Amino acid sequence: MPQVRVRDGAHYAVVVVGGGQAGLATSWQLTARGIDHVVLEADRVANEWRDRRWDSFCLVTPNWQCDLPGFPYAGADRDGFMVRDEIVAYLEDYARCFDVPLAEGIRATNLEEYPQGFKLTTDAATITADQMVIATGPYQRPKIPRMAERLPGEVLQLHSSQYRNPGQLPAGEVVVVGTGQSGCQIAEDLHLAGRQVHLVTGSAPRVARFYRGRDVVAWLDEMGYYVKGIEEFDDVDAVRFRVNHYVTGRDGGRDIDLRRFALEGMNLYGRLVAIGGSDLHFATDLRTNLDHADAVSEGIKDSIDAFIGARGIQAPGESRYQPVWQPSVEPEKLPLQEISAVVWSTGFSRDDSWIRVPVFDGRGYPTHRRGVTSVPGLYFVGLPWQHTWGSGRFGGVAADAAYLGDQIVQRRMQTGVRWIAGLPRSEKTVA
């Protein structure tokens, strides 16, 4: 895979910032349309998968959903779940397969509007572009609550992006805060290694791995859930910021049942509300959190049953989930003296402070419609729920990249500007 040398003062028709699956998919669409561009990656291709995932990490969606443009999954285990190193290899192979014009190790530091489009300052050069695509992904700045500052120094603290394996943590009991996908899977990883885990729950929903003879993802895909546009929902903002359902692809895929973990010795708690004195303090909402997660999972099964019935599909019957454990008490405190480490599985926030273009709302979220912002020529791709449930996943980013490719071509036609590929701005002519 050839590396592009980015020269100071160079001009491109399009600059793509970010070399993950969203940036690579966009590059493929631009190449297919004959559009001169460069992809800038601050580290290496697939860096988020390589450096921010633990050793046993695997996809939670089946391999057949890895369908990047021009590069569908071609392995032998379509219904399996790629592990971390296989995901990295898949993306590296993708970048090589069409010689993406990639410049690795170049970090964008400032983006502003410019008479000819946009001026981008990086730690290597300053370049300009007619159009810009931001493909930096949602996992940029680890979020850790300020209450973490109250933990004693002898307690090791890690964000989920820093966790690798149980052996990384000191001997003793471990608190995992958060029951999104990362929190539940890290808690399981520790639990399977024989560690005493204290899992702090939240409002994240869960989903069954399999139901009525198929992976639930396969049912939802056939039902059209992954291509339903966000504008079809009444509560767009609520949908866009929903927490993902927890489930796992580990060992061929299975449910994550926190109640089962509790039966096996894991300690569960409600939401963490304070760290004070010598204790962690919790809300008394453990039962509510568990019941909510189960209700969402059973609701998805209801929709699958209705789909099967409406289509007359032959599918095996299956009994419904019965809770295997209920909290007899709602624990409100945990002594800190029992804890050796805390893993904060509390998510990420975006870091768009380098983008000096007025496209953000009061929360700092980029305002857009299907990735197209109100500033002509500036686009985002790879955002969760950018247009559909699949937008932030391997299975849906291709459609978003194709849409933006069409928008980029349309704008080029409207402006009448065409730059000869591969030359710095000073050497280019306008056709």
Number of helices: 9
Q: Which stretches are poorly predicted, pLDDT < 50 over at least 5 residues?
A: 419-431
Structural class: alpha/beta
Tell the overall outline: globular
Rounded to an integer in angstroms, the radius of gyration calculated over CA atoms is 23 Å
CATH topology of the largest domain: FAD/NAD(P)-binding domain
The CATH homologous superfamily of the largest domain is called FAD/NAD(P)-binding domain
Number of strands: 21
Number of domains: 2
- From N to C, what is the helix and strand string? EHEHEEHEEEEEEEHEEEHHHEEEHEEEEH
What is the helix fraction of residues, given as a range?
10-25%
Please give the CATH class of the largest domain: Alpha Beta
Describe this structure in words.
The protein has 431 residues and is of the alpha/beta class. The chain folds into 2 domains: 11-140 and 350-427, 3-Layer(bba) Sandwich (FAD/NAD(P)-binding domain); 144-344, 3-Layer(bba) Sandwich (FAD/NAD(P)-binding domain). It is 25% helix and 20% strand. Strands 1, 2, 5, 6, 7, 8 and 21 form a 7-stranded mixed β-sheet that branches. The protein has a 5-stranded parallel β-sheet with strand order 10-19-11-12-15. Strand 13 (210-211) and strand 14 (214-215) form a beta hairpin. 40% of the residues are buried. It comes from Kribbella orskensis. Keywords: Oxidoreductase. InterPro entries: Auxin_biosynth/cation_transpt, CHP04046_FMN-dependent, FAD/NAD-bd_sf.
